UniProtKB/TrEMBL annotation:
Pfam families listed in its UniProt record: TetR_C_43
Name of protein: Transcriptional regulator SbtR-like C-terminal domain-containing protein
Domain of life: Bacteria
Residue ranges constituting the Transcriptional regulator SbtR-like C-terminal domain according to the UniProt record: 1-59
InterPro entries: Tet_transcr_reg_TetR-rel_C_sf, TetR_SbtR-like_C
Amino acid sequence: MTEMGERLVERAREAGGIRPDANASDLFALISAAAWLREQVSEEQAERLLSIMLDGLQPTR
């Protein structure tokens, strides 16, 4: 799974869709955090926090 994640992140990086310092480990940690958050906070707050996380993965332009 890690190898597939690395390939996914590399392709996203090459396409300019993810910041250059992000890696598969970061992606898996964010997915785990998002799942945990959804169980801990309201749906509205979880959606807002997920949006913030995803914005943080965007490359700077």
